[in-house]
Design brief:
The chain has 219 residues and is an alpha/beta fold. The chain is 47% helix and 23% strand.
Length: 219
C-alpha cells in the first residue's frame, strides 16, 4: 500500500488595534493510495486467468449439452475458447469423446487444468533475516523449478522487516524473533495459527588475533 503524505503550512495575518497579529496554522493530510504496482499486476493476471477458465468451462458445458453452433453466442464462445485450447491439442491420443450428439472435449479439460496450474504459479514475497536468506538461496532454485512459484526474497535485519509489516506492506512469509512475532500477533497483524518455529539461532563473538596480540604487548 503506497502512502502519499503532504505537509502544508498556512499563515494568516489580521489587523488589530494594537498592531499586526499573526496566526500560524499547520495541517497535515495523509492519503493512502492503492496497491503497489506489483500487487496491481498480480490482480490483473488473476482476472485474466479467471476469464480464460470461464471461457473454457463454458465450452465444455456447451459441447456436452450439444448446443447449436449456429447460435451467435455459442459460436463466439467456441471460437474464442479455441485460442486457449489449441496449445493443448495432441497431448492425449483422444481429443474428444462423442455420444448421442454430445461431445466431451477432452482437450478442453486438459486446457482448463493447464491454465489453472499456470494461474496458481505465484510470486511468494518473503521477509527474511540474513541467516535464513542463505538457506533460501540454496534451496530456492529447486523450489521454483519444482513448483513454478517465484521467490521474492527481501533480506534485512528483523526489526526493519517488522516495521515494514506494521506499515502495511504486503508479504507472504516473515522471519522474525519470537518476541517480535508475539508483538505482531497481539496487534492483529499476523494470525497466531500461522506461526511456526523454524530454527534456533545463537549469537557469537569473534576477537581478531591481531587485536589480542596488541593488547598482550601493551601489557
Amino acid at each position: 500500500m503506497s502512502i502519499d503524505q503532504v505537509d502544508r503550512t498556512v499563515v494568516t495575518q489580521e489587523a488589530t488595534p494594537t498592531g499586526q497579529a499573526t496566526v500560524r496554522t499547520q495541517s497535515r493530510s495523509v492519503t493512502r493510495g492503492g496497491p503497489e504496482g506489483r500487487e496491481q499486476a498480480r490482480r490483473i493476471l488473476v482476472l485474466i486467468f479467471g476469464l480464460i477458465q470461464i471461457i473454457i468451462g463454458a465450452r465444455i458445458v456447451l459441447l456436452l449439452l450439444d448446443a447449436r453452433e449456429a447460435n451467435g453466442l455459442v459460436s463466439g464462445i467456441l471460437s474464442v475458447s479455441n485460442l486457449f485450447v489449441a496449445p493443448f491439442e495432441g497431448i492425449l491420443r483422444t481429443d474428444a469423446l462423442h455420444a448421442a450428439g454430445s461431445i466431451l472435449d477432452v482437450t478442453a479439460i486438459v486446457a482448463f487444468v493447464g491454465w489453472t496450474a499456470i494461474a496458481h504459479a505465484a510470486e511468494i514475497k518473503i521477509f527474511s533475516t540474513r541467516a535464513i536468506t542463505t538457506v533460501l538461496d540454496a534451496v530456492g532454485p529447486e523450489f521454483e523449478r519444482t513448483t513454478g512459484h517465484t521467490l521474492n526474497i527481501n533480506s534485512d535485519v528483523a526489526i526493519n522487516l517488522v516495521r515494514r509489516v506494521e506499515a502495511g506492506e504486503p508479504f507472504d512469509f516473515l522471519v522474525a524473533s519470537p518476541s517480535q512475532m508475539d508483538g505482531l500477533i497481539a496487534k492483529g497483524t499476523i494470525v497466531a495459527e500461522t506461526r511456526t518455529n523454524l530454527v534456533r539461532s545463537g549469537i557469537g563473538v569473534q576477537v581478531m588475533l591481531l587485536v589480542a596480540a596488541i593488547v598482550a604487548v601493551a601489557k
